[in-house]
């Protein structure tokens, strides 16, 4: 183990003012239009998700799942990103844009690209995935294709299971236009009064609590489904007796759900958050999806009543709201899915004998343990670590951050068990985690009732870091057992999110975490850490110093290199530092899942920068930062993306990995991800992403995730053989 003094993550106490002046001078040498638009880049990410749905080599139920993911992603993009841009424009606030264009032009470009992608998404379902499902024996049929007996059975199903929960709402002088909830699927219905001849309008919400696809029984080997809205549409006469149904069309509204809370002006964050959640339900409309056959009369009425513009209307062929394809996950057809993968217990945490219980504290005392989820089990590592801490009589205290989890989570239960056993337990709960706010409030109160000390973070900041600290008494002294991760303490998402977690008994990390938790729960302000880089005070500056050191090493002819794996890369200061490093000859490799504003391969600016993206059965979620450091690589993992909010408005933490074998493991993974023989998307200088999945002969390239699964399995077999 290296001496602690050499592990200072902040690279010493060089004069900050001198460093800032040098950076500003370098910025003058960079061209003005050097960033890709972040919103268009996000849409490009969702296009990569769509390309997986279009890929015939992907199992067909997985393709349907990717279509649903695309739809869900796009909903959130409109509810948050587009809504935020519009709110700023309306209120006159500065609109963040790194491409030097007017905000209205940005919105126009977003609209055009989103229209194109939604049409492509609809075509992928109707022309590719739906026919492929039918070939596999899973048909999504229309009402007109049913025979009389089947139609009769479905009518009976409708009367028994659907009709009682429907609520048609008339629109007339006595009934104003109803409130349309965000993301709900609705039918706009025009009817004629048979007695007066007057035309009326009604709205009918498709009940979200019912299965979106109604299974049709039959004698054949396959299975058939009818969309719920089609079943309802063909029984409208039952809802409007004595009326003539003239026309009906599906529509769907997206509302602004961007949340703003002035924390410094509120006395109670939870009460303010609950009020904001109520307000969010009634946010202004920002997108209207309609079927392509909707008549002009109905469309004009919706535009008028919803106060929405033509640019915000998306006229689509086929079914709306393909999030409903998530429901197909209930189909028991493993042959149409990715081969099952059961996460393996990390070698260090395997019990000494079969059916025995592992001593995680003993394993961590032997040396740092790096765990890679979901290839290695979350349940037998992170979860077992906290459960063992909860029942261990020598454990005195547990401190943990919680960003997204669930009320029935074994993580929450372990903290409750620990508190009820008389241990000191601190849970720093980030209740403002977007779209999980209501759930977070519920289980935060559950923790409080059990005696856990619940803290809701710092005013003006979200606590996004993934940290757990266990204080254990051993032989008359206190020892720190620490976990720093890249992903949430969530057993459910740990099965589909790719993440790393580092367990260590290193006293320096323990002291760093103790200081950080004190800062989060009290009023301490820690200026410096040894093995951590922490936002918002030091993370940006620390990374900029590491990147600049690589630049200086390159200029001096020393080995240099920067590798960064993140979900998003949009921060201008970090990007500019990478540009300057590239200009000095530093090889820069960026592995990004989502947004990336870097323009790679531009002569004189970024010809030494390479950007790759990998998407697949697991969501790439870990963050890794490696610096060549003149032949002595420094590697960090943690929770921070390269975005303004992560570096300036969140509490984030990176920990330095020091075990040579673990450093090499992370470097080897990165090398394989960036290799031309690995399946990935390559980013071009104009923002175009090109998929590389086969070689010149048409043979498939290496699938990184499958390769990693196989590698973990081989390690396990080798251990068993010994």
Give a short synopsis of this structure.
This protein has 19 helices and 27 strands. By secondary structure, the protein is α/β, with parallel strands linked by helices. The active site is at residue 464.
What this model shows, in words?
Helix content is 37%, strand content 21%. Strands 14, 18, 19, 20, 21, 23, 24, 25, 26 and 27 form a 10-stranded mixed beta sheet that branches. The longest helix is centred in the first third of the chain and has 33 residues, at 103-135. Keywords: ATP-binding, Kinase, Magnesium, Metal-binding, Nucleotide-binding, Phosphoprotein, Transferase. It catalyses: [phosphate](n) + ATP = [phosphate](n+1) + ADP.
Multimeric status of the protein: single chain
- Round the Cα radius of gyration to an integer and report it: 28 Å
Distance from first to last alpha carbon = 27 Å
Q: Report the helical percentage.
A: 25-40%
Let me know the average pLDDT. Answer: 88
Assign the CATH topology of the largest domain.
polyphosphate kinase like
Proportion of residues in β-strands: 15-25%
CATH class of the largest domain: Alpha Beta
The number of distinct β-strands equals: 27
Largest sheet: 10 strands, mixed
């Amino acid at each position: 183990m290296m001496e602690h003094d050499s592990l200072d993550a902040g690279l010493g106490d060089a004069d900050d003012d001198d460093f800032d002046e040098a950076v500003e001078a370098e910025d003058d040498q960079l061209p003005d239009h050097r960033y890709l638009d972040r919103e268009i880049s996000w849409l490009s990410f969702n296009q990569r998700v769509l390309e997986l749905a279009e890929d015939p080599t992907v199992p067909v139920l997985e393709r349907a799942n990717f279509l649903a993911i695309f739809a869900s992603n796009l909903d959130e993009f409109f509810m948050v990103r587009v809504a935020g841009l519009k709110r700023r424009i309306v209120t006159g606030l500065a609109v963040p844009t790194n491409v030097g264009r007017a905000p209205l032009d940005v919105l126009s470009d977003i609209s055009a690209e989103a229209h194109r992608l939604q049409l492509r998404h609809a075509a992928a379902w109707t022309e590719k995935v739906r026919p492929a499902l039918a070939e596999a024996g899973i048909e999504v049929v229309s009402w007109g294709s049913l025979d009389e007996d089947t139609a009769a059975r479905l009518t009976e199903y409708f009367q028994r299971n659907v009709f009682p929960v429907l609520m048609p709402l008339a629109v007339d002088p006595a009934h104003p236009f109803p409130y349309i909830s965000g993301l709900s699927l609705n039918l706009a219905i025009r009817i004629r009064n048979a007695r007066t001849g007057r035309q009326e309008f009604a709205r009918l919400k498709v009940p979200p609590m019912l299965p979106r696809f109604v299974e049709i029984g039959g004698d054949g080997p396959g299975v058939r489904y009818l969309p719920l809205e089609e079943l309802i549409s063909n029984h409208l006469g039952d809802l409007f007796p004595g009326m003539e149904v003239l026309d009906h069309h599906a529509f769907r509204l997206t509302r602004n759900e961007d949340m703003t809370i002035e924390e410094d002006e509120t006395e109670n964050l939870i009460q303010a958050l609950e009020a904001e959640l109520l307000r969010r339900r009634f946010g202004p409309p920002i997108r209207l999806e309609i079927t392509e056959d909707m008549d002009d009369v109905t469309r004009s009425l919706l535009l008028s009543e919803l106060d929405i513009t033509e640019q915000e209307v998306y006229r689509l062929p086929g079914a709306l709201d393909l999030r409903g394809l998530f429901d197909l996950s209930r189909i028991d057809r493993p042959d149409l899915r990715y081969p099952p993968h059961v996460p393996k217990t990390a070698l260090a945490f395997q019990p000494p004998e079969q059916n025995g219980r592992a001593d995680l504290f003993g394993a961590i005392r032997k040396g740092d343990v790096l765990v890679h989820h979901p290839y290695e089990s979350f349940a037998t590592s992170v979860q077992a670590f906290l459960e063992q801490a909860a029942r261990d009589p020598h454990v005195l205290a547990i401190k943990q951050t919680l960003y997204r989890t669930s009320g029935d989570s074994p993580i929450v239960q372990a903290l409750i068990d620990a508190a009820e056993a008389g241990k000191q337990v601190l849970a720093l709960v980030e209740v403002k985690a977007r779209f999980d706010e209501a759930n977070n409030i519920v289980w935060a109160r559950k923790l409080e009732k059990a005696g856990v000390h619940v803290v809701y973070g710092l005013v003006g900041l979200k606590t996004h870091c993934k940290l757990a600290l266990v204080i254990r008494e051993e032989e008359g002294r206190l020892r720190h057992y620490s976990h720093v991760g890249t992903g949430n303490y969530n057993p459910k998402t740990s099965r589909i999110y790719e993440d790393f977690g580092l367990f260590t008994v290193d006293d320096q990390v323990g002291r760093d975490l103790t200081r950080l938790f004190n800062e989060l729960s009290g009023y301490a302000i820690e200026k410096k850490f040894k093995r951590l880089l922490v936002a918002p005070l030091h993370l940006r500056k620390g990374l900029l110093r590491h990147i600049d050191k690589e630049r200086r090493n390159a200029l001096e002819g020393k080995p240099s290199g920067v590798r960064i794996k993140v979900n998003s890369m949009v921060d201008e200061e970090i990007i500019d530092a990478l540009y300057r490093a590239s200009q000095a000859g530093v090889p820069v490799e960026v592995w990004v899942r989502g947004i990336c504003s870097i323009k790679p391969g531009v002569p004189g600016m970024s010809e030494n920068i390479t950007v790759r993206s990998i998407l697949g059965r697991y969501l790439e979620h870990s963050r890794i930062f490696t610096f060549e450091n003149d032949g002595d690589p420094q590697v960090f993992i943690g929770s921070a993306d390269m975005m303004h909010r992560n570096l300036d408005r969140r509490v984030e933490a990176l920990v330095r990995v020091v075990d040579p074998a673990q450093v090499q493991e992370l470097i080897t993974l990165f090398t394989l991800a960036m290799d031309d023989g690995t399946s990935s998307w390559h980013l071009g200088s104009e923002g175009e992403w090109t998929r590389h999945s086969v070689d010149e002969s048409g043979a498939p390239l290496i699938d990184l995730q499958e390769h990693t699964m196989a590698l973990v399995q081989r390690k396990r077999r080798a251990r068993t053989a010994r």
